[in-house]
Automatic annotation (TrEMBL):
The protein's enzyme class: transferase
Lineage: Bacteria, Bacillati, Bacillota, Bacilli, Bacillales
UniProt catalytic activity: DNA(n) + a 2'-deoxyribonucleoside 5'-triphosphate = DNA(n+1) + diphosphate
Lineage top rank: taxon: Bacteria
Domain DNA-directed DNA polymerase family A palm: 368-617
Alphabetical keyword list: DNA replication
Protein's organism: Paenibacillus woosongensis
Protein name per its UniProtKB record: DNA-directed DNA polymerase
Pfam families: DNA_pol_A (PF00476)
EC number of the protein: 2.7.7.7
UniProt keyword annotation of Zinc present: no
Signal peptide location: none
Length: 652
């Protein structure tokens, strides 16, 4: 199979990072500046499209030839830009993404990071960021460049030559990374899944521009109203200024040494010396709630056909390969609890913000509730939404062979009630509304959500968001849950022992249901039933002073700090990785099956699939039946899905 490696440098006045590549290429001034390529181990060629050079006919032909595999680092960008510029179809089945390949091994998501971690001889040119900023994004007019809003090659020929070499070097580095990764191939089924992922991202999901633009305008008007009232009371030039507001509060006798953040507000409100001070604090609190980030993201990323594309990152959570959200971040949408969502969204769309507030409450709350409803079906379609029921609780019970839990899921499925009955030794039929034992359901639910991955009191506190349980009960609840689920508890220690043994003895240790820990080339692999493997780079054994025993340390990206660093893991965390990875594989299986059945997925959120279905075709029953079908690599895993239809996206 011929391999054609590609890297392009482009220009567009649209912000790529904030708007996404699909919106980026729609700009009238979008163009490909440089096109670097190489066949196999041949020298890298760079075509300067700004200098009237043309892509060789062979290369142009091979861009659509299924016999030629095209590779790039972050291939979605190359695919989309090349398809637009040359007006051709770039079928994802003919492409492979080296970035995704790196992510499957737990490596960083950016080219220079991977090259650095792999200690390649070829490294990404460090001048790149400055060159991209100079040639590939608009520039501000200055005294030096006059009114120029863009830099062309003739403005700095030396820098342009450096940009050509930078473009060439990216192909060299991408090729070296791919060669290094060849020892650990991605299963072909995962590449088929990536192809489907690209189709879903290319298809995109339709947005309601009237709604999201009204939401932005409503927020602007409401924020202006709050600021005006705060100005009137305080007579400050800018009541949003922390320094000015703290000084004003100090004059009123209210010191704020710890600031004015959300967690300090209740105490400050209690200490307010008078009604005016209290009202200003309330205004400050309300201003902090006004956030239309997701609506603004919709406005930035929506394409000319009113669709948002590129919202999902394959293998974005690279510890488990689960998808991550991009641009609008659909993976963390607020839930909706307004009863009449249809009325609320229509009032918002009408622009009658006063009526909206009168009927449904303060705009920050209402706008948050309506975010999901901005996603709408294509013309002539409706959404069918289906999601797995308690997927992680099912998978962990299956892995651990916790028979009573599996029996619940194979029967009535009321895991929270059954767990509470098992924990507290009461008949399950008494855990119903109207019976005193119904209060135990909340304890059962919190315990199921918090304790499955060796979670203790802190995990319970985090899951008990409604504060339905006395914190003094947490230690007892943890013990009761663990006593009720002895096999899950055993699984934590079995997973940790297996992983430690695999690393220490440089061998393979079986766990359960086809899961095994395997040590190879400095990497601890967790082989999964589906045929793929999780990777823990540079795994080693180090004493854990907190628990006076040896434990596993590995290197990986810190998702918060965005840097490559060491991490310590343990049994519960290893089991969490396994369960979430297997749950992800169940979703992947369903996405492929739904696609084969003709369902067009427009996005998926955690364990939920949202499909555009023509009115009169398909059904909730068929979608949920497909998602509930047994999976050959997971015999005995009881899957179940629920669903509903809707005219706009919502939480059922």
């Amino acid at each position: 199979m011929t391999v054609l490696q590609i890297d392009v440098e482009t220009y567009s006045s649209v912000d790529l990072k904030n708007c996404g590549v699909h919106r980026y290429v729609e700009s009238p001034d979008f163009e490909i500046l440089l096109f670097a390529y190489a066949y196999g181990d041949d020298p890298v060629q760079v075509v300067d499209l700004t200098d009237f050079e043309e892509l060789p006919e062979q290369v142009l032909h091979d861009l659509t030839d299924p016999a030629v595999i095209k590779t790039a680092y972050n291939a979605a960008f190359e695919r989309t830009t090349i398809a637009k510029y040359f007006d051709i179809e770039c079928d994802p089945s003919q492409w492979r993404c080296t970035s995704v390949w790196a992510l499957t091994l737990g490596l960083p998501g950016y080219l220079e990071g991977v090259a650095d971690v792999l200690k390649l001889e070829a490294q990404k040119d460090s001048k790149g960021k400055a060159l991209i900023k100079y040639f590939s994004v608009p520039c501000k007019p200055t005294k030096v460049n006059g009114q120029r809003t863009r830099n062309f090659p003739h403005h700095d020929p030396q820098k342009w030559q450096e940009y050509i070499e930078y473009n060439r070097q990216d192909v060299v580095v991408e090729r070296e990374i791919r060669k290094k990764l060849e020892r650990f191939p991605v299963p072909e089924k995962e590449w088929r899944l990536w192809e489907l992922d690209q189709q879903i991202n290319d298809r995109g999901v339709r947005l309601d521009p009237v709604l999201f633009q009204a939401a932005i305008e409503c927020d602007v008007q409401y924020s202006a109203r709050l600021v005006a009232e705060a100005k009137e009371i305080t007579e400050l030039e800018n009541p949003n200024s922390l320094a000015q507001l703290k000084a004003w509060l100090s004059e009123r006798g209210l010191e704020t040494p710890d600031g004015l953040s959300k967690e300090h507000m209740p105490a400050l409100l209690d200490a307010a010396p008078d009604e005016e001070t209290r009202r200003v604090l309330e205004l400050r609190q309300e201003m902090g709630k006004t956030s239309v980030d997701k609506y603004n993201a919709m406005n930035r990323s929506v394409c000319v056909d009113e669709r948002a594309r590129g919202l999902l990152q394959f293998c974005g959570a690279n510890r488990t390969w689960r998808w991550a959200g991009r641009l609008i971040q659909v993976q963390n949408l607020p839930q909706n609890k307004i009863e009449d969502l249809a009325l609320a969204r229509e009032v918002l769309r009408s622009g009658d913000y006063e009526l909206l507030e009168m009927l449904f409450g303060a705009p920050p709350f209402v706008l948050s509730q309506l975010i999901r409803t901005a996603f709408i079906p294509s013309e002539g379609c409706r959404f069918i939404v289906a999601d797995f029921s308690a997927i992680e609780a099912r998978v962990v019970a299956w892995l651990a062979n916790e028979k009573w839990v599996l029996d619940v899921f194979r029967g009535h499925g009321k895991i929270y009630e059954a767990t509470a009955a098992n924990m507290f030794g009461v008949p399950m039929e008494t855990i119903v509304k109207g019976h005193p034992n119904y209060e135990l359901r909340a304890r059962g639910k919190v315990a199921v959500l918090a304790c499955g991955y060796q979670g203790g009191e802190n995990a319970l506190a985090a899951m008990d968001s409604k504060k339905e349980i006395n914190p003094d009960e947490y230690p007892r609840l943890v013990k009761q849950w663990r006593d009720a689920n002895p096999n899950i508890r055993k699984l934590w220690y079995a997973a940790e022992n297996a992983a430690v043994s695999a690393v220490r003895e440089k061998t393979t240790v079986k766990l359960a249901h086809g899961v095994r820990y395997r040590y190879e080339a400095g990497i601890l692999f967790a082989d999964l039933p589906s045929g793929r493997s999780l990777a823990y780079m540079n795994a080693r054994i180090k004493p854990d002073p907190k628990f006076s025993k040896d434990g596993i340390v590995f290197d990986g990206m810190d998702q918060v700090k965005k840097k490559w660093m060491s991490h310590r893991t343990y049994g519960g965390r290893l089991v969490e990785n396994l369960v979430q990875a297997i749950a992800r594989d169940c979703l992947a299986e369903s996405l492929l099956r739904l696609d084969a059945a003709g369902y067009k997925t427009v996005m998926h959120v955690h364990d939920e699939v949202i499909a555009d279905a023509p009115i009169g075709w398909g059904s909730v029953e068929e979608m949920t039946e497909i998602m509930s079908q047994p999976i050959d690599w997971a015999p005995g895993l009881p899957l179940s899905a629920d669903g509903f239809e809707c005219e706009f996206y919502q939480k059922d």
